[in-house]
TrEMBL record:
<feature type="domain" description="TF-B3">
    <location>
        <begin position="162"/>
        <end position="255"/>
    </location>
</feature>
<feature type="region of interest" description="Disordered">
    <location>
        <begin position="114"/>
        <end position="144"/>
    </location>
</feature>
<keyword id="KW-0804">Transcription</keyword>
<feature type="compositionally biased region" description="Basic and acidic residues">
    <location>
        <begin position="133"/>
        <end position="144"/>
    </location>
</feature>
<keyword id="KW-0238">DNA-binding</keyword>
<dbReference type="InterPro" id="IPR015300">
    <property type="entry name" value="DNA-bd_pseudobarrel_sf"/>
</dbReference>
<dbReference type="GO" id="GO:0003677">
    <property type="term" value="F:DNA binding"/>
</dbReference>
<keyword id="KW-0805">Transcription regulation</keyword>
<dbReference type="InterPro" id="IPR050655">
    <property type="entry name" value="Plant_B3_domain"/>
</dbReference>
<dbReference type="Pfam" id="PF02362">
    <property type="entry name" value="B3"/>
</dbReference>
<protein>
    <submittedName>
        <fullName>OLC1v1003072C2</fullName>
    </submittedName>
</protein>
<dbReference type="InterPro" id="IPR003340">
    <property type="entry name" value="B3_DNA-bd"/>
</dbReference>
<dbReference type="GO" id="GO:0005634">
    <property type="term" value="C:nucleus"/>
</dbReference>
<feature type="domain" description="TF-B3">
    <location>
        <begin position="12"/>
        <end position="105"/>
    </location>
</feature>
<keyword id="KW-0539">Nucleus</keyword>
Amino acid sequence: MVKPKSRMAESSCFFRIFSPKLHGNELKINPGFVNEYLKKVPDRMVLKCESGGPWPVRVVKTGNDVFLRHGWQEFVQDNSLQENNFLFFTYDGNAELAVQIFEDTGLERDYSAAASETHQEDDASPRVQNLGREARDPKEEINGDREERIRSFLSSCGNDLFEKQMRRHNVANPFTLRIPLEFAEEHLGRNKTVVRLISAKSQKSCKVNYTYNVRNKQCTFVGGWGKFARRNNLKIGNFCIFELVGERTFRVFVF
């Protein structure tokens, strides 16, 4: 017999339709939710969603209004929130908010489906000699000079690495990157964790969430990957080499 849900389980939630102008730097929590469930407003809360996390955020009370502020911007950037994304927040009563993200189509963002778009890609890293043939669009093709530079780098690099050619879902919503299975299992394991990506060009780094889907054995960079892709101006057809330079730390070369 299924037990009826408690009132807390049924009602401790609120939603927002995201607008970069209104919610890019802060998010106001619904007053009704505050009155009902936040009798004592915490200084901090933690956001979690399917893309990873957690994202700690500062809670600020101004008069009768309560806002998520410091840390909220990182959540927005890491999850590549867009105009009219529907955000559904569920409170667990323990200063944690689970966030579901819905696209403007009305469908919940599905990170596993995005990773599945790459099901025709080999689980092994793509080989350089096949890059020209693998490109799906003439603009993506790797010319001879660039291919030679990639070959030269690969032949001289002594560290473990994997390579990926950027597709649409890697450089635009929902910003995911599938990792070769054998490499991921050997170096990152089967548990969710956080990795550090360092741009070889700028030396700036980003923290990125790594997930392992046990059911379909897909290993994916999700939350934080979008920030790295935008910061490094990644485009469809770019060829990226991820060199393992430390524990869960990669130096990324873009060709």
